[in-house]
Design a protein that fits this description.
By secondary structure, the chain is of the alpha/beta class. The chain has helices spanning 61-68, 79-90, 100-107, 116-123, 144-155, 157-171, 174-192, and strands at 2-7, 19-26, 36-42, 47-52, 73-76, 97-99. It has a single domain (2-130, 142-192), classed as Ribonuclease H-like superfamily/Ribonuclease H (Nucleotidyltransferase, domain 5), CATH 3.30.420.10.
Length: 204
């Protein structure tokens, strides 16, 4: 595993094709209050790229271009949150997306454990540490432990996606999953515009 740290934005000569695993680190879980600090990416090749953002400007044309490239699938775990913070802080409309959390809920109906740690442990055989999840991602310098944690969140998503796709196909739920993924940007917009916990499809 190699971790590449980029300050401010992705380098212009770095390119991805086909699909890229993506995650983010923020100062908390409220998109309106807690700023976006780090975006991590992996092509599924064992390397991770961490973009430590300039929170004064959020000027990231290269990263934004990647997030909005309709030829590159962005693989997330709980895409709803990341897509929302990218929209708020980067003004990026992220698409197309794949969410391993949604895929897990549709395919792994025999369990209620759909966190990334649980999905990766069962499907990829990796026991991830979540110790740095609540650390200070706004720090000027990220610690080695933070870098390792951020990288781990994207390094295994391609393999998890492949395993989940096979399960979805087996259970006849690939098209249902695809429809859910296509709705994620709209669900993220609802979160940002005032309907975070409301089920607008409910009767009351």
């Amino acid at each position: 595993m190699t971790i590449h740290l980029h300050k401010g934005d992705l380098p212009p000569d770095l390119s991805f094709s086909g699909s890229v695993a993506v995650d983010s680190e923020t100062m908390g879980l409220n998109p309106h209050r807690d700023p976006l600090c780090v975006v991590q990416l992996s092509a599924g090749d064992g390397d991770a790229h961490l973009v430590q953002l300039d929170r004064a400007t959020y000027d990231v044309p290269n990263l934004k271009k990647l997030l909005e490239d309709d030829q590159i699938l962005k693989i997330f775990h709980f895409a709803r949150f990341d897509v929302a913070v990218f929209r708020k802080y980067l003004n990026a409309n992220t698409s197309p997306v794949y969410c391993t959390k949604i895929a897990s809920k549709l395919a792994r109906t025999y369990t209620d454990r759909h966190g990334l740690k649980d999905v990766c442990k069962e499907l990829v055989g990796v026991d991830m540490s979540k110790q740095q999840q609540s650390s200070d991602w706004g720090a000027h310098d990220l610690s080695p432990a933070q870098k390792d944690y951020a990288a781990a969140d994207v390094l295994y998503l391609h393999e998890a996606q492949a395993k989940l796709d096979a399960m979805l196909e087996r259970e006849g739920r690939r098209e249902l999953a695809r429809a859910c993924f296509e709705f994620i940007p709209y669900r993220a917009k609802l979160d940002l515009e005032g309907w975070p916990e409301t089920d607008i499809f409910a009767h009351s």
